[in-house]
Amino acid sequence: MKVSRLYMVTGNRHKVEEAKEILERYGVELVQAEARKLEIQSESLEEIALTAARYAYLQLRKPLIVEDAGLFIEALNGFPGPYSSYVYKKIGVEGVLKLMEGVGDRRACFKAAVAYVAPGVERVFTGEVCGRIAREARGSRGFGFDPIFVPEGESRTFAEMSVEEKNRYSHRARAFKRLGEWIVREWWSMRSNSEG
Amino acid sequence: MKVSRLYMVTGNRHKVEEAKEILERYGVELVQAEARKLEIQSESLEEIALTAARYAYLQLRKPLIVEDAGLFIEALNGFPGPYSSYVYKKIGVEGVLKLMEGVGDRRACFKAAVAYVAPGVERVFTGEVCGRIAREARGSRGFGFDPIFVPEGESRTFAEMSVEEKNRYSHRARAFKRLGEWIVREWWSMRSNSEG
């Protein structure tokens, strides 16, 4: 399988690690890239990721992706949503657990959007995993709100799983699988066109 | 005094009302204007307001201002800060009161940044008012977190005050006063130059 190189614009090495593990299955070599980031305020992860990817593309002029993700808690009307990393930095998992004290409805979803921009093409792939907010923080792997999120059908939090285990469920893994499948299809159709 | 017309890009009529009350003292006529808004994610209100004002100026090509403000709570590391309106919409004053349950340090500041963009000129004016987070919500005036903010030297919350009373203290009023003073100075210096 042909190896395509793809640049990921992010300062978060955990995200690169998780994405790499998925994309290499599709013959894609992921490389972390630096660019000035334009991150807009929006309730749409797709819009945030796509705007950032377009802006990064103007600087790098290479096929690249930008990923954005957030934790959407049902009982908090979707808070912290697209501002999850800011909220994590300010009030942490303890703050969110405090907001959830005495709240019976623990449903929450992690969502991710991966925007791909290359010459003449723009695509956004999304992924989602639903589950519940744990009663207390558990585990030390992953990052952000991983210690308080338990995916459906599991009893462990994301922070109690290895990267490979987390990727079996995760929103980010789902979005990256869709990207990987699309890249493979594109490559095959380009190959058959050039051979046709 | 010459009346200058200035456009304010916002969807929040409360902000226009508060700003109008200040700016008319300086001979400035404030008009609410519509434009597509580019609001970036940043911990700096100045940067958010200036970027939005530049973007609006590209559309309107008239002297305009964009204001951004937030409530910065000491014990929550500055949360909700620039994301105050999003946080208000999602978890409300009740959510913030819950985060502050059992917290002795109630110190907080409201901050505002007003960015002015006109042909060949860009300026940002800031204002701040410090005080404390009330133990419970009081009052029905104003908007956002006004019902839980008590400015230093007062016992009432912002939501228990009229626009005129709030403007005696408020972060927004302070930023707008600085803008008003600057506009008056600019106008006098332009007038003396043209007469000199």
Key attributes of the depicted protein:
196 residues, homodimer, globular, Maf protein, seven-stranded mixed sheet, alpha/beta, 5 helices, 38% helix
List the helices and strands and how they pair.
The structure is a homodimer of 196-residue chains.
Chain A: E1 4-9, H1 13-23, E2 28-33, H2 45-60, E3 64-73, E4 80-81, H3 84-99, E5 107-118, E6 121-133, E7 149-151, H4 163-169, H5 171-195
Parallel strand pairs in A: 1-2, 1-3
Antiparallel strand pairs in A: 3-4, 3-5, 5-6, 6-7
Helix pairs in contact in A: 1-5, 4-5
Explain what you see.
The structure is a homodimer of 196-residue chains. Chain A is of the alpha/beta class. Chain A has a single domain (4-195), classed as Maf protein (Alpha-Beta Complex), CATH 3.90.950. The first copy, chain A, is 38% helix and 27% strand. Chain A has helices at residues 13-23, 45-60, 84-99, 163-169, 171-195, and strands at 4-9, 28-33, 64-73, 80-81, 107-118, 121-133, 149-151. In chain A, strands 1, 2, 3, 4, 5, 6 and 7 form a seven-stranded mixed sheet that branches. In chain A, a hairpin with a 2-residue loop joins β5 and β6 (121-133). The first copy, chain A, is globular, with a radius of gyration of 17 Å. The model of chain A has no long low-confidence stretch (mean pLDDT 94). Chains A and B meet through β4 and α3 of A and β4 and α3 of B.
